Amino acid sequence: MSAVDAQQAIIQVHHEEWARVVAALTRRFGDLDIAEEAAAEAFAIAVERWPADGVPPNPGAWLTTTANRKAIDRIRRESKRDDKHKEAQIVYDDDPPEPLGAIDDDRLRLIFTCCHPALSLETRVALTLRMVGGLTMPEIARAFLVQESAMGQRITRAKAKIKAARIPYRVPSAEDLPTRVSGVLSVLFLVFNEGYLATGPDTDPVRHELTAEAIRLTRLIRALMPEDGEVAGLLALMLLTEARRTARVSASGELVPLDEQDRGAWDAALIAEGHQLVRERLAAGVPPGRYQILAAINAVHTSVRDIRDTDWSQIVALYDQLIRIDPSPIVALNRAIAVAELDGPEVSLAAVDRLNDKLAGYHAYHATRADLLRRLCRSEEARAAYDKAIELAGNTAETAHLTRRRDQLR
């Protein structure tokens, strides 16, 4: 096997197996820090050995075994230094623990641990991206617009807090789930978004392993809480968004906006499943939450085969409903984009410009302004807006799209 082939195999295995390895080690040793360090060491050994020895038949098992040995070595060192006899006894306990929670899934337990309410929301997202998603520290730091060292310290403090507070590694009991699940959904949505439109300039523009993992974990939570409308709404939103994945980036690596996508390339099965979930929630007759409304908006977008048949009045009405429960500037920006299709770009631009104080550092705000100014034939202003959007955008596919649009201006 060539070094290039081995490197590609390691990247693929890292995408598929990182969360499994970390979760298995966390379950056995009860320590996120040990689990992460041992998993990282196992992958580092793979980088050294696999180019010469070849990829093992079962890479996940190889990595888990190697990581277990590294974890045991660390615990033995610490037990000798600190006399942690009780911790050292773990290495001799090969009996699997009893399943905890309604679903026996190590990664689901891991995400509830990472998303514990004792941690701040930003810390929960960062810890989940690292421990479950396997993102590197530079990638996570970029997502939060902070220095890598600061993000490393934040994650280290979070792991220490989980250990000191003895936060349990388990799926919450049925009576605790309703209060815990909303925080998990927020984290899963942010993880999905990182995969849907990756923030790192040196990563793939769409990270399917992250979107797939977010969907998989959301399915598991839905199995736990089948009557929860927001769980169903988030799953529907993810499915309807994921259905468009293959049409979102061109062969040349450029982002393809919704109005230019080949709708025949959308995943019909995912769209049908997402629409079914939206219909079920409508039939329930319960006032919808944020994720259910976002799913309904996506259902309108994906219900027609031609962009010209889109029911923009319905989309604006849904955004009006959403903004009452989530009056954020991002929702207002997306509503303004829909308004442009109903009332024209001039009305929309006035609404967008009112958001300048809150969204001046957000690339999508400037990209939206640029597109509206282009439609109004205000080319010089549009060029300046495109320049600002390109400066702020981190996704390579999005940058390519914005650059082409800017360069098309006269």
TrEMBL record:
<dbReference type="GO" id="GO:0016987">
    <property type="term" value="F:sigma factor activity"/>
</dbReference>
<dbReference type="InterPro" id="IPR011990">
    <property type="entry name" value="TPR-like_helical_dom_sf"/>
</dbReference>
<dbReference type="Pfam" id="PF04542">
    <property type="entry name" value="Sigma70_r2"/>
</dbReference>
<protein>
    <submittedName>
        <fullName>RNA polymerase sigma factor</fullName>
    </submittedName>
</protein>
<dbReference type="Pfam" id="PF08281">
    <property type="entry name" value="Sigma70_r4_2"/>
</dbReference>
<comment type="similarity">
    <text>Belongs to the sigma-70 factor family. ECF subfamily.</text>
</comment>
<feature type="domain" description="RNA polymerase sigma-70 region 2">
    <location>
        <begin position="20"/>
        <end position="80"/>
    </location>
</feature>
<feature type="domain" description="DUF6596">
    <location>
        <begin position="180"/>
        <end position="280"/>
    </location>
</feature>
<dbReference type="InterPro" id="IPR013249">
    <property type="entry name" value="RNA_pol_sigma70_r4_t2"/>
</dbReference>
<dbReference type="InterPro" id="IPR007627">
    <property type="entry name" value="RNA_pol_sigma70_r2"/>
</dbReference>
<dbReference type="InterPro" id="IPR046531">
    <property type="entry name" value="DUF6596"/>
</dbReference>
<dbReference type="Pfam" id="PF20239">
    <property type="entry name" value="DUF6596"/>
</dbReference>
<keyword id="KW-0731">Sigma factor</keyword>
<dbReference type="InterPro" id="IPR036388">
    <property type="entry name" value="WH-like_DNA-bd_sf"/>
</dbReference>
<keyword id="KW-0805">Transcription regulation</keyword>
<dbReference type="GO" id="GO:0003677">
    <property type="term" value="F:DNA binding"/>
</dbReference>
<feature type="region of interest" description="Disordered">
    <location>
        <begin position="77"/>
        <end position="96"/>
    </location>
</feature>
<feature type="domain" description="RNA polymerase sigma factor 70 region 4 type 2">
    <location>
        <begin position="111"/>
        <end position="162"/>
    </location>
</feature>
<keyword id="KW-0804">Transcription</keyword>
<dbReference type="InterPro" id="IPR013324">
    <property type="entry name" value="RNA_pol_sigma_r3/r4-like"/>
</dbReference>
<dbReference type="InterPro" id="IPR013325">
    <property type="entry name" value="RNA_pol_sigma_r2"/>
</dbReference>
<feature type="compositionally biased region" description="Basic and acidic residues">
    <location>
        <begin position="77"/>
        <end position="88"/>
    </location>
</feature>
<dbReference type="GO" id="GO:0006352">
    <property type="term" value="P:DNA-templated transcription initiation"/>
</dbReference>
